[in-house]
Amino acid sequence: DPLGITSNPVTDGGAVYAVGEIAGAFPVEPQHLLVGVNPATGAETLAPTVVDVAAMTDVAAEQQRAGLVVANGNVYVGFGGLDGDCGTYHGYVVAASETSGSVVGSFEVAAVSNAAAVWGTSGPVADGSGNVYASTGNSQGTSPSVLTDYSDGVVRLAPTMSGATTVPADYFQPPAWRSDNAGDLDLGSTGPVLLPNGTQLFVIGKQHTAFLLNTSSLGGSDHMTPVGSLNMCNAMAFGQNAAISNSSVYVACSSGIQQVKIS
Question: Sheet containing 132-135: which strands, arranged edge to edge?
């Protein structure tokens, strides 16, 4: 069945954008459509436009759960898998033009393996320079021969992202990303939170460890030690976290909300 709208819409201050899944005319697979509306009148500002990309080999296995973000004149759309990881899917971040709806760029996570969803419900975030940051989930690419597949981490996508790519501008993965992958301990169960200073990111997933990252240097292939880390959440973290200042973050643990002091 088509799922309809399963993610938070976003506004640029003028239009409200949402993505919904509809059924394709048989035998066409379901499609994900981006639409823009005027919040005052309900009139369409952007006609429904398909944002699935050609590299998605099984669109029926893709779910659009991550909240949307607007930056650089584009709406950024995260994709992942259905509950139970049914089918063959990959995580994606797709950039679609606000004015035409056409896909201008896309990033595929774990192109050398499988899965690695962009699924945390709060979705990616953008900084003041237009860089977009997304957290990613589990993949199947944990063999020693795979240096990285950008799973279980945070990726930074450049404002000028165009065309299809499988390499981010920068990325962070915890040193334990291989065992986290194997243990279904996604860092991507929540989206990254940009602190108001615009230079630091807070992120936590299912593995109980929160990380504070520098936006200018996430760590890359060196698996650099983050600015700070903290073991927290008696249960896993899901949903939307919030930074109300440069020194305080509220975390949506499934056992309740916890406050973290940043210093």
Answer: 125-126, 132-135, 154-157, 170-172
CA distances, 219 to each of 54, 170, 173, 249, 253 (Å): 31, 7, 8, 22, 26
Give the span between the Cα atoms of 204 and 10, in whole angstroms.
23
Beta bridge partners of 247: none
The residues facing 190 across adjacent strands are 239
- The C-alpha atoms of residue 10 and residue 8 are separated, in whole angstroms, by 7
Tell me the backbone φ, ψ of residue 187, rounded to 5 degrees.
-75, -20
Closest C-alpha among 150, 126, 109 to residue 201: 126
Q: What is the pLDDT of residues 92-136, one digit of tens each?
A: 999 999 999 999 999 999 988 889 999 999 999 999 999 999 999
Amino acid at 2: P
Residue type, 122: S
pLDDT (tens digit, 9 = 90+) per residue, 204-222? Answer: 999 889 999 999 999 865 5
pLDDT digit string, tens, across residues 49-70 = 999 999 998 898 999 999 999 9
Angstrom CA distances, 23 to 17, 31, 32, 243, 253, stand at 20, 6, 9, 38, 34
Are 19 and 51 contacting, i.e. CB atoms less than 8 angstroms apart? yes
95 DSSP β-pair partners = 76, 105
Q: How many other C-beta atoms are found inside a 10 Å radius of the C-beta of residue 213? A: 25
